[in-house]
Design brief:
Blueprint (H helix, E strand, L loop, with lengths): L7 H23 L6 H8 L3 H5 L5 H24 L6 H18 L3 H13 L1 H29 L7 H21 L6 H17 L6
Helix pairs in contact: 1-2, 4-7, 5-9, 6-7, 7-8, 8-9
Length: 208
């Protein structure tokens, strides 16, 4: 069976994806600062030259990884909101389940933590990182607005502010879970996230 020959564009895209996958693995295990361009290229099966023909720097590659993860999360959100004929209860259940359990599959969490550390140290990287964060908050805010309109539940604050709170709490709980899972268990993490979401977004009373 003959091997399918890739076009130049397909070959370039394949190279970029392999470099991105390798970098994600190395950044998570070694940390952004400790990782080298050579580490990334070697794990991907390419040369240093192949790296620089696709990315200008490690920082540029890191931002691309964040955007790739952002697009993946947004695809999951679109799938929830594009459920045809979903009732209010079904929509609420889908959104609540996604928000309170997403941390289990969030393989890129440490990647975002590495990016935040880098942004705190590198003012140039901070510009691109903050632009990425703003885009994420804007999209989350839009979905919050759509959800409110779909189920007819008024929001207690502007969607933009609510998006900041939702993302900050999710990050904080996942960070605590990552280094102290014996205390901040799955049960605790999901209970806190779900209770916050039910109270602030659904407007339900907080259990005694």
């Amino acid at each position: 069976m003959s091997k399918v020959r890739l076009t130049r564009e397909q070959s370039r895209d394949q190279t970029r994806q392999r470099l991105l996958d390798a970098a994600q693995s190395i950044f998570i295990t070694k940390g952004f600062v400790a990782a080298s361009v050579e580490d990334i290229a070697e794990q991907a099966g390419y040369t240093r030259g192949a790296f620089y023909s696709n990315f200008g720097s490690k920082s540029e590659l890191l931002l691309q990884l964040l955007r790739r993860d952002h697009e993946h999360v947004m695809a999951e959100m679109r799938a929830i909101f594009e459920q045809e004929g979903a009732s209010r209860a079904q929509m609420e259940e889908s959104v609540l389940r996604h928000y309170s359990t997403h941390y289990r599959e969030n393989d890129c969490f440490l990647l975002w933590m590495e990016a935040k550390l880098q942004a705190a140290r590198d003012s140039q990287f901070r510009v691109g990182f903050n632009a990425c964060l703003r885009e994420l908050r804007e999209v989350v805010a839009e979905y919050v607005r759509q959800f409110s309109e779909h189920v007819g539940t008024p929001l207690p604050m502007a969607p933009e502010k609510l998006a900041v709170g939702l993302l900050a709490l999710s990050d904080g709980m996942q960070f605590s879970y990552a280094f102290d899972p014996q205390t901040i268990t799955d049960e605790v993490t999901e209970a806190v996230l779900a209770a916050f979401f039910r109270r602030i977004v659904f407007g339900e009373p907080t259990p005694e």
